Amino acid sequence: MSYAMDMQNYTTQSETATSEPKIMARDVNVFYGPSQALKSIQLDIGANEVTSLIGPSGCGKSTFLRCLNRMNDVIENCTVEGRISLDGVDLYNSGLDPVLLRARVGMVFQKPNPFPKSIFDNIAYGPRLHGTVSNKDELDERVEKSLRRAGLWDEVKDRLDKPGTGLSGGQQQRLCIARAIAINPEVILMDEPCSALDPIATAKIEELIDELRERFTIVIVTHSMQQAARVSQKTAFFHLGELVEVGETDRLFTSPQDDRTQGYITGRFG
Amino acid sequence: MTDNTPHLKVNPALLKRRNAAEKRFRFYGLAAVMTAVLVLCLLLTSIISKGYTAFQQTYILVDIRLDAETIDPKGTKRVEDLAAASYRGLLRSALREQFPGVEGRKAKRALYGIVASGAEFDVRDAVLNNPKLVGTTATIAVKSSDDVDSFYKGYIPRDVPESNRKVKDRELVWLDTLSADDRIVKQFNVDFFTHGDSREPEEAGILGAVIGSLYTLAITLALCFPIGVLTAIYLEEFAPTNKWTDLIEVNINNLAAVPSIVFGLLGLAIFLNFMGLPRSAPIVGGMVLALMTLPTIIIASRAALKAVPPSIREAALGIGASRMQTVFHHVLPLAMPGILTGTILGMAQALGETAPLLMIGMVAFIADIPGSMSDAATVLPVQIYLWADSPERGFVEKTSAAIMILLAFLVVMNAIAVILRKRFERRW
Amino acid sequence: MPDTKDHIVSSFDKELRIIHEIIIRMGGMAENQLSESVDALVQRDSAKAELVRKEDAKIDALEEELEAAVIQLIALRQPVANDLRAVIAAFKISSDLERIGDYAKNIAKRSIAINQMPPQKSVTSIMRMSRLVQEIVKDTLDAFSNNDKDRAIDVWHRDEEVDEMYTSLFRELLTYMMEDPRNIGACTHMLFIAKNIERMGDHATNIAETIYYLSTGERIEGKRPKGDRTAFQILTPDDGEGEVEI
User: Fold this and answer.
1) Structure confidence by residue, pLDDT tens digits, B284-298
2) d(Cα C155, Cα C27) in Å, to the nearest integer?
3) Cross-chain CB nearest to B314 (options A106, A113, A129)
4) What is the ipTM of this complex?
5) Which pTM value belongs to this model?
């Protein structure tokens, strides 16, 4: 029964994947000063699917992720060449305001980083900042909705005024996800969101990612190949700044085309 | 694998040496701490033992006939008239009546000398407090002279030859008589906290210097806190790292190490000679101290900003905050305890600073309590320096007392720094 | 080994190697069982047949051992890509080999029964067919140990021959039975033996398909060649034979 349903999901998934990709990267080169971190990356990220980026440390997957919401702008000497577009609009060369871009492309980080404020203020910060709510009631509603969507509401509804830093690691990370979705972004980038969490908290986040896929396009960087296999529809393998292979996750994990991919995912690298 | 290296075997000699070295190191550390504590105790004991007496003042009870004819000939009983009257004659005649045997100009002058030169004002104040005393004979406590005060505080011993003694044999007789009559009393020295500086030790107070210090620090804080914090924010959060910012950074670090007297010279040249600001004024002192404190505050603020984890910045940026919003909504509030601590420590340093103020004339003798930032004033450390330089015996205890006041201020400021840090400190 | 490059975790390699070795051993034993059982039939040697029946337990034991090793490896190592394919392939191949062993045992059992009856002419045809299947099984196992997908495809195609041979043997046996009803008992046994050998060929084909998947990650393209037409055959005593499409 559930298998049949999965299969159904799967087919609708591949249908959406064939439509126009949400994010397109073409010939993307990234340099940190003189050293090249990414070499001519071509990657399409489909809407409403989870794309995971895997690869050994320093392979450029996080760098690529940070290109997608221009977080690299903050880093000095970082230059991005090539074309990355979101819904066909060039992120770097079309006068798009990076601050607004980041409101459309939210981000969740490796280490849970709630603001040292109350749980409520953590969520409310984004909507207040962007003026997307007009009164207190709307704000309350938005906070509740975001927390519910992040599966955290029942755990924190009685202590919204307590500091967000007082939550457990997994709860903090879900708080950060709730904070990201409170401004209704189109894309959510996740940079190793579970690397600091225990397996139960990880499972909760993964379940959450699967639910969020309905409304958001998700790109996740992960060091855990099992996690990539569990949560994503597409997987891209990066190595030494190159995009070695990208494909449907089940295909990539059963019969990868490239020897480097195979060597990496089976643990033969090195 | 054929690694045949034997497993670790404990070498008792090595272990013993290692443990001994560790023990020795701990002992050295403890010894150093104990030495520091000992020296501090010595210093405090010395200051307090010399200075605590300054908070008391010896008074002589004198029966004064407050002759209505002399004080208030018109009988108006108005405060102005009572205040304008001369009480010196009344006090002197009262003293003469106390010791009827005193004859001759010299002896009489010596007799008048056992009370302070300003003792008549004690009489006046008593009358002003209670105008009904006019026309009666009242027992009024008048301030003794500084020598008498010192004698009763034990600084002038009886058993030295009269020629080497400030209080002569004749005066000793009078004082003994007064003591026998229970006419010598010690009271809390209110004047020390309410008077400005004076040439007479028994009249000198700390208030002028305290107010001067407060004005100066207010100027310093108003100038260097905003400038210092904004500079730190710009350098830490916005400035690109290049040769120019490196140069600025090196210069700021060097400025922190420049001797303070140089800042005094700078203030003299620019604020006084070039800009023509008033000499000895807290406004100029504050500006000079601001120059001196600025690098400290910038360095402390930058360290505090740097200590805010980058994940907080990323979180704010990732949600679509601009860099300025990121800094002012998140980074600055988290860095505030550190910045405030640095600022207060910088202020404490400024409070204790003397050298640059000497250069801009804040070392002058100023008896008035300053009424504004541009009035001539002195500050606590300079006051200490001035009193320490004065020859009168009475100023010795005043110096120590002033040091105690200064230390109290510093302790309070440091305590505020600790409290602020505790209160605003947040976990992240 | 499917891959010459070693894992970073060397015990992983060791476990994969153990699984691989079990398959090779099982293959060798299954091959041997087949030839021994047919020998027992041809030589009318009931003692040998008895031995074959006993030997089958060893193949079953090996299969159990392999099953345990595979489950343990999946649980502890979570293999992916070629490792995953190797483990799953081993699992499938072992069950195919176990079936081959079972068929050999069945042949041995039937040969004991046939030995009580007069010698049969069809034994030579059975021998020919079994030789072909033996070759196929052997080639399959070679393809497995060398991870040789071309050889696997080759084996896959050769199953057609076995099927054709079975079809003709089927006809032959039917003819004998019609000739003389006293042959029916022995011929029925022979028919089952022939079917067993034909099924062994099918399992060898399965193994070949698995080897192809193991090596490439894909299924062999195209329809499986089928030469076995006995399912569609109707024979009447009058005209000897006839074919009907259903």
Assistant:
1) 999 999 999 999 999
2) 15
3) A113
4) 0.85
5) 0.77
